[in-house]
Amino acid sequence: MPLAESAPTLYVDTFFARQPVFRADTSVFGYELLYRSGSEDDTGDYSDEDAASLLVLSSALASPAGAGKPDRKAIVHFSERSLLTDLHAALPPESTALIIKPRRHAGEGYLQTLRKARSRGFTLMLDSLEPDACDPALLELARVVCLDLAGQTPQRLADAARALKTPGRQLLARGVEDDQGLRRAKDLGFDLFQGFFFARPVIVPGRKLPTGRLARLSIHKTLGKGEDALEELARVIESDVSVSYRLLTFINSASFSARQKVSSIRHALNLLGWRKVRGWLLMVVLSELLPKGKPSELPYLSTIRARFLERASSGLAPGGVTPDTLFLMGLFSLLEPMLDTPMPELVDQLPLDDAVKDALSGKHNGFTPWLHLARCFETGDWSRLDELTTRLSLDPVKVASSYCEALVWAKALEEQASETP
């Protein structure tokens, strides 16, 4: 496949958020697409024009796992009217889940449409269901049923889970915000989990970052120094057998296909060039920093933030923030939950401006709105996004297309990193 630097540029003037849904083992089941076209919030009822954007965005969310079996699904909201007009036909069935609203009485025409969609391979999901407030025929068609944890008493939630859990049907817990909520949902028999529990650190007092992970961080420190640090980067990689091996394997892979023998790590870096080395190392090293049991979504989301902030800030008047600085800030913004180590301790290891370190550590300054801008896409907070776009003097269309481009770029990086052992 082509290198991530040549990933296609997408100009989609559509705001959307992608929220991961996890399995019990923290692997990603899919991404829920929260979608807004123009200035109105909208998570369904798409127009014909929207269908083209949906096709682009869903292909950016889903990731093939080989042999035609999708690794992740794009989870998309559709209204009854949109389904009856067959707009979902623009999306690939095997990698798409359709979220539908529960209703007490579903018409036969609507049920027939859903049966046809399911027979074609679409996964049907019922959103925020109350067990006694849904047509049984609609419930029977659902492969996944979503329940909100917020506002539910433990007994009511347990009763609902017991009533809805059947062979062939999975339960999705929404609003799982911490490790305690995750354990509670697992104990009740939920199969899928959505919320920001994965981005919250579990800090253990006195825990020290292992030496091996400190060495991996030093690679990113060197990357932050720019192209002039190529010699230093070669020395750092040479000290890490795992990264050295993966680098040489990558050069010999279908992604690069080197035509000459590599005589040294420095030679390998020269063959690749700084930009390709930088992109490849981002995903590989962040992934290897991740302790066992942590969701792989964390390094993936970090690279999306980094690229988005870099692209959204490009072309701004000189004298303020720079795209390179914002790239590094986005890249390191999730180190705390990745490593379960307080951010102030981690940023001491990084060659960043003091203002960036402060922003990453939770202090408010001129860099803080940029971090909030990235988070708005992750939560679908459109009103806050509008406010920040105006405050930072950004073009809304460029902001939207920058996020879409970042998503495609991060996906390409992830696939390249997974090609090598």
Automatic annotation (TrEMBL):
| InterPro entries for this protein | dGMP_Pdiesterase_EAL/HD-GYP, EAL_sf, HDOD, RNase_Y/CdgJ
Which residue intervals define the domain HDOD in the entry? 209-398
Top-level taxon in the UniProt lineage: Bacteria
Write down a Pfam family by its short name: HDOD
This protein is called HDOD domain-containing protein
Species source reads Fundidesulfovibrio magnetotacticus
